[in-house]
Amino acid sequence: MGRAPCCDKANVKKGPWSPEEDAKLRDYIEKNGTAGNWIALPQKADLKRCGKSCRLRWLNYLRPNIKHGEFSIEEDRIICTLYVTIGSRWSIIAAQLPGRTDNDIKNYWNTKLKKKLMSVIPQFNQRRAPPPFPDSYQDSPLSLSSQMLPPLSLDSNSQYYTCSLNKQPASQEFASLPQYLSTNDNNSLGNPNNCSSFQAPEGYYSPLKESNNFLSGGEGSCSCSDGSSGGQLGRAGEIIKQEDMGFQDYSTYTDYAYQCVEKTNGYFSENIAESYNLDDVKRLIGSTSLSCNGSILDENREELDLMPMYYF
DNA sequence: AAATACCACAACCGCAGTCAC
DNA sequence: AGTGACTGCGGTTGTGGTATT
């Protein structure tokens, strides 16, 4: 019954790969391919490694056209956009970034990008559930999330990421967002102190989970015990005051939207993300672009309201 | 100069879905 | 149809290099 055993775990080497092992694996695959059988490959290639380990090494490091090094601003934008929308589906995100592996992106997110975003998440202490979401969303997770989670974009002088939102609701669904998720008319691209903002009503904080759940993988709250909301963890635990950030309202919206999506479908990462297909993802990351004056254009090439978001 | 802390990246682990027997 | 290996994925841990004390 079943197949032959995977590998002799007692006789496989673990830990970092040596240059010799890399060379063996590369040579073997270049000459013979994987034949769709990673388990048998180590023996054929004279490697004392588990097939799983060989596969990982090839896919994440040895495979041709792998791109190492700094991520571009555009790559940041795509990662942020997709993460906010589909969660930690690294393989899907990697599919949109040629040359990048899911492991690469995951590491980049966990070690760098997440921290950048963490530095602008305000902490709130009063946390109540947001108003109930319209029933009409229940059946349409994709349209909901696409409408509600605006793609991130880079401002004209590349200093901060921005999040865009149509002045006029793009759809009936959007129009029925809670009223306090609205923009004002004083937004000014590139000026974090003079931006449109989303104001939560008194006593409300948008997330249902902790505010940093979105950015920290659900590791829990770090709210201030003294009831203040003035501090947040930055690099190496440094406390960054909101007033030092120059703005403070974006994440309220982001988290609200994120949580609304999550609530609407029960479990964001397990339900919504699965409803995406490749076209959805492409549409999502391609749904905004920069106009000649640096404004963000939507799919219909109409200028969108902007507000500063991530200020690095 | 040594010890410690921090960081980035590579690699491993465990799970779930798929597939071969 | 049932069993168990295989594959792919995401989360976590390990490791080596660098910075700081």
Automatic annotation (TrEMBL):
Nucleus as UniProt keyword: yes
- Which is one GO molecular function term here? DNA binding
Q: Please indicate if the UniProt record lists Cell inner membrane as a keyword.
A: no
Q: What cellular component GO annotations does this protein have?
A: nucleus
Q: Which InterPro entries match?
A: Homeodomain-like_sf (IPR009057), Myb_dom (IPR017930), SANT/Myb (IPR001005)
Q: What is this protein called?
A: Transcription factor RAX2-like
Question: Which compartments is it annotated to reside in?
Answer: Nucleus
Per the database record, which ranges form the HTH myb-type domain? 9-62, 63-117
Q: Which UniProt keywords apply?
A: DNA-binding, Nucleus, Repeat, Transcription, Transcription regulation
Provide an example Pfam family for this protein: Myb_DNA-binding
**Where would I find the Myb-like domain in this sequence?**
9-62, 63-113
Output the Gene3D superfamilies linked to this UniProt entry: Homeodomain-like
